[in-house]
Amino acid sequence: MSGSPTRKPVTLDASLVPPTIRDAASQVVTSLRSAGHQAYFAGGFARDLLIGRPVHDIDIATDAPPNRVESLFPDSRSFGKSFGVVQVIIDDCPFEVATFRTEGPYRDGRRPESVRFTTPDEDARRRDFTINGMFYDPASGEVIDYVGGLADLERRLIRAIGIPAERFAEDHLRILRAIRFASVLEFDIDPATLQAMRDHADDLRAISPERIRDELIRTLMEAPHPGTALKRLSATGILAVILPEVEAMHGVEQPPDYHPEGDVFEHVCLMLETMKERTPALVWSILMHDVAKPATFSIQPDRQGNPRIRFFGHDEQGAIMAADILRRFRCPNQLIDDVVIAVRNHMRFAAVPEMRAATLRKWVGAPTFPLELELHRIDCLSSHGSLDHYDQIRTFRDTLTTEPALPRPLITGKDLMQRGLTPGPHLGRVLKSIYEQQLEGSFSDRITAEAWLDQHLDTLRASPDIQP
User: Would you tell me which of 46, 225, 243, 303 could form a disulfide with 136, CB atoms 3.0–4.6 Å apart?
Assistant: First the structure.
């Protein structure tokens, strides 16, 4: 039996919804209603409208069965017909049109074994959280609430609809979604919902790595305070399940003169908070850059014999661990490669003052250098605070603005063979040595390059390694 909803008139802020999407979605609702059916905007539309967040897409809920939707909209396709979902395209805007439904048992913690088409109030009650269970009527401009979402929005509260354990048993990923909504919206989590999340965190092991990965990264990309989001994941026991290598950073002490902020976990949280322009590669690099510190922690005497905390080889071991973890999450190969390089090189900045110009040029010219540089900046600001090496390498990079960091070689293999060197590994080593001299500034054009080559040719034949 249908319950009586709470209705709240809401003025639609046109700036929150692109007019093309709004008008096309309204056309879908109008067409369904003209055919004698109920239809509303569903999902997060009402939530975002009420709290003033931009709306990027609109889902539609109706009592029209899928076959009826397809007959009313010829330009449509089955998107999940067995679950009552049809994709309708209006003016190049795709919309998911779902029939009001209630769901049968969940066996895999992801999808119901069956669905039954039903009424709006039952449809609302099978959704995840109250703030996501409201409808919006574009004709009357009212929010329609069967589940208490309006009150929870006022309280800034994430609360599961009905019995939390049942909602999380239906789709285990809802445990992570609760963290995302709470972190992105900066809401609290209802105590009963929070306890159920803790009780069922281990169920996330049954979820595919890709779904875990996407929800985790989306949380850390969108949350105003991603460090707080990571702490929430840890406090609920979720982090220990999905990313135990980061959970293991808790309590791993660091040298206080370099890391006055505290243990490794606190350092990583601060780094997440310090991000400016976020990318998945940067988020993963922050999470992974010190991932080997728990395993490499040791206390060794310094030169005066005083005990000092050390993490020998944590950069190299961390790169190996990062590759394994990102492969476990089935990340794209390019992202894995970029993050592994950033983790492996994150301690390299300490040697910047002693680096040869050729070494610096090759590093600055590497495609991953912007990621490495930003990771270093954040690393410094979240620990000792000194940006000396960061400023030094940026100054060096800025001197190269009028030319590429890695210019075209002035001497080629053809030049060497014309001077009697034969093709093979030795010629390759000679070319590499000559190019390093070019990067060091030993010559700057073709004429001076050939003069330098003729001057050093006999030495290069004997040994390709010439030091400046």
Answer: 46
